[in-house]
Amino acid sequence: MIILDNASINDKLKILADSAKYDVACTSSGVERKAEKGTVGATSAFGICHSFAADGRCISLLKILYTNECIYNCKYCINRVTNDIPRVSFTPEEICTLTMEFYKRNYIEGLFLSSGILNTPDYTMELIIQTLQMLRSQYHFGGYIHCKTIPGASPELVELAGWYADRVSINLELPTADALRHLAPNKSRSAILKPMRQIQLGIEQSRQRLGMKGGNYSAYRYTQKRLGRQHTLSETSQPPKLSDHDGTFSPEVLSRQPDNITKRGFAPAGQSTQMIIGASGETDFEILSVTEALYQRFDLKRVFYSAFINVNNDDELPSPAGGPPLAREHRLYQADWLLRYYGFCANELLNEKRPNFNPFLDPKCDWAIGHLDKFPIEINRADYDTLLRVPGIGTKSARRIINARRMGNLDFYSLKNMGVVMKRAVYFITCNGKMFCTGIKIDENFITRQLINKDTVLLQNTAESNITYKQMHLFDFIPD
Amino acid sequence: MKPIRIYRCPDTICGILTGIYDAGTSRYGHDYIRLETTCPDGFSEMQLFCEYIEIAPDSKKADIVADSVKDKISSAVYMNILHLLLSSDTEKANIAYHFLVYGFHIGERIIHALQIPWVKQVFEINRAVENEAHFFREFLRFSNKDNIYISVIEPKNHIVSLIMPHFADRLNTESFIIYDKTHMEAGMHPASNEWYIRNLLPDEGRTLEKMYNNNDTTASLWKTFFDAIAIKERTNPSLQRNMCPIHFRKYMTEFKKTPN
């Protein structure tokens, strides 16, 4: 281990941002808070991205590690103890100054602080908390803070982190306990799930004390509530038990609330987690089921996926020839949205017989083609949740349709104005009992062919089936 | 057939609202009325076979229109009209007029009736203005000169008044200026005070632009961070262009080429 003691702040930032980049969660959403007079910084509920890096991922927070020194030896991680890389650490003052200066220039929305494990988990966690406390009380920073908790840190420290941060997260790292044991020998499933449960209960209590300011529910929870499903869920889709140690805590989880920050609540933007995709042999169905279970049992705001990159060239880990499995990660995110906002269940989208997503079709189109008995749907009559199941209609356009049709019938032309993606939707909807054009067959093969062919020949040519088009030539107009 | 009557309003909120008042009270028939905004330099294409009426801005008439929109329709519709009038769309005066004709008839539910072409256009322009304002909340960059934070932007629409409250809240302890180069106006926020908007003289604009300097230490630290945070294996410039279009990058610190 090469420890650089005299590194400049620029070098530290370079190394510690570089080591933090594999953490996916860079969201600044989930809590709306105006600045108080005399403090710097506010947060907005929908989150604000301030830039986009060369890989197209958003930069919302100053995403850094406190240190990249680490006593653990996780096989997938660039900072594992056996790697021969330069090691540096920030001081709390440096992090605070960077955050404040960047924030005032509108570069960032706040701080994302994670860390390698220095000496012990508790020692590292104390350094992180010291930094957050300094930022909040000495620098009067009111912006967004996302804090990673260190697996194995004591519950008191985890609680303090929740009081200073807006969002707390702890990485699940790998979808199954076996893979975790194999690839991250120093981390255990229970050391990850225990603080997750603690934070969940803490947020619940904070909500009871402070109302909405204490933290709002996840989108998943609202969707399930709208569908009237919250009680029946466990019967229909038996979420896999994540561990025997879901954690038991006394009824009063929150005991160490610092005096001056009551207004902010305990982790008001909720908690999130992330999983590495493609390092161990799980199917998409397993990953999606774990995701669903996390939403149901831990009330997480988000589950993030990270396409595995073999940074250490470790022989025990796969190095796919086509680069990281980005397409798979994309499909999983699409499915994640279907779970959280559209009311789909994991076992509707995939099952044991068909455990992986179709690489050619997005999960919603794929589902719709498998359930053609439910289509076509009449736009002027269907309710909100039925509209949401149509490919090409999202939450915004469904809401607009509901509002607009109170004012009069809708036709295909006005649907386009509302943001419906017609090239996907036309196969599944009718307006006033009519399909978009003649020639659309509600047939699995036909629709699949149309959706995969990017040039929708049908829509151009059969709108008026007796009219054909051809390229015009100048000489056509000149008589012989 | 009656000739079309065209009301030419100055391109200000007061001017267009006055035009709406005059056109609405003329009883000439909505189908025969068109509103146009005049360019500041006075040139515009005139049409044959129609009457032109020049509008002199009158704040009393404008207030009457504003108040009756708020009272008889809703304040949400009024906000829609305001955003519409902040846009750079050349048809905005005409759209606002015909939207309000429907608005006074249907009431506050008018904003949902996207099947009506005028409403659809108001909706689209509103969305464009609000989106542009949001892009600048994201991508605007301040530079620090003697503890005054300065920013230069070139928006298509008049969005400074939409983004000032956002920054005045989070940076309430700082003095900052947001200079809109396209429209030669600037939002000013003195530390711990109320913000205001001022029209600028060309000289003032040039001075502000010179003061905007993103080459200091903090800026270079930010560039270091920006380069370090990207994952090489995932490089995807077209996604980056989708999310952060190139025309926004002109004044963004991290996209500025270093002098060497």
Our Rg estimate of chain B from Cα atoms comes to 22 Å
The count of β-strands of chain A is: 12
Return Rg of chain A in Å: 26 Å
Element-by-element helix/strand order of chain B: EHEEHHHHEEHEEEHHH
Q: pLDDT under 50 segments of chain A (min length 5)?
A: 231-247, 455-470
Question: Order of strands across the biggest sheet of chain A?
Answer: 4-6-7-8-9-10
Helix content of chain B: 40-55%
Overall structural class of chain B, as computed from helix and strand content, comes to alpha/beta
**What fraction of the residues of chain B are assigned to beta strands by DSSP?**
15-25%
Overall domain count of chain A: 2
Distance between the termini of chain B: 68 Å
Largest sheet of chain A: 6 strands, parallel
Overall mean pLDDT score of chain B? 92
Number of strands of chain B: 8
Oligomer: heterodimer
Count of helical regions of chain B: 9
Mean pLDDT of chain A: 86
- Largest sheet of chain B, described in full? 5 strands, mixed
Total helices of chain A: the number is: 18
- Could you name the CATH class of the largest domain in chain A? Alpha Beta
Adjacency order of strands in the biggest sheet of chain B: 4-5-6-7-8
Structure explained in plain terms:
The complex is a heterodimer of chains A (480) and B (260). By secondary structure, chain A is α/β, with parallel strands linked by helices. Chain A has 18 helices and 12 strands. In chain A, the strands form 4 sheets. Chain A has a 6-stranded parallel β-sheet. In chain A, strands 1-5 form a two-stranded parallel sheet. A two-stranded antiparallel sheet of chain A has the order 2-3. In chain A, helix 3 runs parallel beside helix 4 and helix 4 packs across helix 6. Chain A is globular. Chain A starts with a strand and ends in a 19-residue tail after the last helix. About 7% of the residues of chain A have low confidence. By secondary structure, chain B is α/β, with parallel strands linked by helices. Chain B folds into 2 domains: 128 residues, no CATH class; 118 residues, no CATH class. Chain B has 9 helices and 8 strands. Chain B has a 5-stranded mixed β-sheet with strand order 4-5-6-7-8, sandwiched between helices. A 3-stranded parallel β-sheet of chain B has the order 2-1-3. In chain B, helix 1 packs across helix 4 and helix 3 packs antiparallel against helix 4. Chain B starts with a strand and ends in a 17-residue tail after the last helix. The mean pLDDT of chain B is 92. The chains are: A alpha/beta (480), B alpha/beta (260). Chains A and B meet through helix 1, strand 2, strand 3, strand 4 and helix 2 of A and helix 5, helix 6, helix 8 and helix 9 of B.
